[in-house]
Structure formats: structure tokens, C-alpha cells
Amino acid sequence: MATLARFDPFNLVRSDPFEEMVESFMPTMLRPLRTRMQPTIPMEVMETENAYLVSAELPGIKRENINVSVSGNQLTISGESKEEKEAGVEATALCNERWFGKFSRTMTLPFEVDESGADAKYYDGILHLTLPKKASSIAKKLAIH
Questions:
Q1: If DSSP codes are grouped into helix, strand and coil, which group holds residue 39?
Q2: Could you give the domains of the chain?
Q3: Helices assigned H by DSSP within the chain
Q4: How far is CA 97 from the centre of its chain?
Q5: Rounded to whole angstroms, how far apart are CA atoms 92 and 71?
Q6: Alpha carbon separation from 127 to 19, 70, 71, 80, 90 (Å, rounded)
Q7: What are the tens digits of pLDDT across the range 62-76?
Q8: Are strands 101-108 and 66-71 parallel, antiparallel or unpaired?
Q9: The model's pTM
Q10: To 5 degrees, how large is the angle CA 82–CA 88–CA 94?
């Protein structure tokens, strides 16, 4: 009977023979560890003349488990993704590529943010932030006489 093997394009550059040996015996056991080690928050940051517009993907995370803090020009998005299990259901996972646990991402913006005017909205798994720049940080154009 023929065995179907998963193609791994990075297999050609792998240099650790021990890792190759362990992975050949237990390929599905190590794969979840690699994908869960460092979850990242995909973000898009746009800048207008007066504000920063930030969109962060946080699918499946409840609004009450998300924290946003702004201090000066530092933006931090953190929270926790909790595993939800149905009561009384015993099941063995055949494939589990989701990650659970605490996460955090800090970004330094070019100018300070006016925290009092900041706005956060969360819908469809995307966090939308509007972070106005502090008036003292905005460059003023001087008229030349």
C-alpha cells in the first residue's frame, strides 16, 4: 500500500539530523508546537494628517478579553484567547491549528497620541482604532513672508 507524504519545501535546507529523525517518527506531534509558539496580531496602520488608523485582526476573541492601552506614542494591544469546550463532551482532536492563551503586541508610533480623543471599535473579528495625534506633535507649516 502506498503512503502519502506531505511535501515540505524547507526540508531541503534543514541541517539538524536529530530534528529530521524525530519529525519522521512524529510529524503531527511537533507541527502544533511550532504554530503555537509565537502568535502574532496582524495589523494595518495608516496615518492621516491628524490621526493614526489601526486595524488589528483578532478573530474569535471576545470583546471583553481585549485590552488596548496608549501611553505617549506607545500602542499596546493585548488579551487572551480562551479555549471553549462543550460540557460533557469527550472528544479527541484530530487536527487543532488554533492557538489559545495570552497575546500582546506593542508598537511605537512616530508621534504622541491624544488618549482623550482615541476611539476603539470591534466587529467581525477586527479591532479598529482611531488615535488622534497630540496637537503639540503635529508639524505646523510656517508662512514665508
A1: coil
A2: 39-82+101-132 (2.60.40.790)
A3: 17-25, 27-36
A4: 15
A5: 44
A6: 38, 15, 18, 14, 34
A7: 999 999 999 999 999
A8: unpaired
A9: 0.65
A10: 65
